[in-house]
Specification:
The chain is α+β, with helices and mostly antiparallel strands. The protein has helices at about 5-10, 30-45, 55-85, 115-140, 145-165, 175-185, 190-210, 220-225, and strands spanning about 15-20, 20-25, 90-100, 100-105. A four-stranded mixed β-sheet has the order 1-2-3-4.
Length: about 220
């Protein structure tokens, strides 16, 4: 098959409607699931007191479960945006699941609605992830060390990372929309967009070239719950 035809074929494999909203699902979602499965399997094995207590297939199955939970978390993230957008009378006209995550498309340009509404809609997604992480952390705290406990621990870990990543002040992320919303309280739309774009570039440069590497302490904190 021609590579271009193949890329077009997997870009959107099928469409269904959820609450009247068309949802496009790409086959690239499978690749995302595979990547998350591998990452989750490595994490879960690393967190086990005796990493050789289970076979590779068992860790793989735990990774699959964690991957499904992570994709559901991504869906809830977008659902958070959609629910708050609906509260403000801005319907969602399109949604999708892709190889890089998920998205919802409001009927109005989110960068031109009331700034406080823009902020609230943008924050709703990360808050959904923090809520899922909190519920998972409670389960981790009350359970003894086990394969299932470490699988849920991964969900807490990945949801915190998803929320923190999305809150970065980068224009295509929720944090960029929050930044743009606050700037629009003071400046015009065009000036706010330019300032947000400048902050976006500054943030990317900082994380790529200036930020010192930090030890991954989040796993250790969750492991002590």
């Amino acid at each position: 098959m021609n590579p271009v035809h193949f890329a077009n074929a997997v870009q959107t494999s099928f469409v269904f409607r959820f609450l009247g909203v068309p949802v496009a699902v790409s086959l690239w979602l499978i690749l995302l699931g595979v990547i998350i499965t591998l990452d989750a399997s490595i994490y879960i094995k690393k967190m086990m007191p005796n990493p050789y207590s289970c076979g590779r297939f068992t860790y793989f199955c735990a990774g699959v479960i964690a991957a499904i939970g992570t994709i559901i978390s991504i869906v809830f993230h977008e659902l958070g945006h959609g629910v708050v957008s609906g509260w403000f009378g801005i319907p969602i006209v399109k949604a999708g699941l892709t190889g890089w995550g998920a998205y919802v498309q409001p009927a109005a340009n989110i960068l031109e609605i009331n700034p406080w509404k823009e902020i609230a809609i943008a924050v709703a997604g990360p808050l959904a992830n923090f809520l899922i992480a909190g519920i998972a952390a409670i389960y981790v705290a009350i359970r003894d060390e086990s394969l299932s406990e470490n699988t849920v621990q991964y969900l807490a870990y990945i949801n915190i990372r998803l929320a923190r990543l999305n809150l970065l002040p980068i224009l295509v992320l929720d944090g960029g929309r929050v930044t743009n919303g606050f700037l629009r309280l003071v400046f015009s739309n065009n000036t706010s967009f330019r300032l947000t774009l400048a902050i976006t570039f500054a943030t990317i440069i900082y994380y790529l070239f200036l930020r010192k590497s930090r030890k991954p302490v989040l796993e250790d904190k969750l492991a002590t719950l």
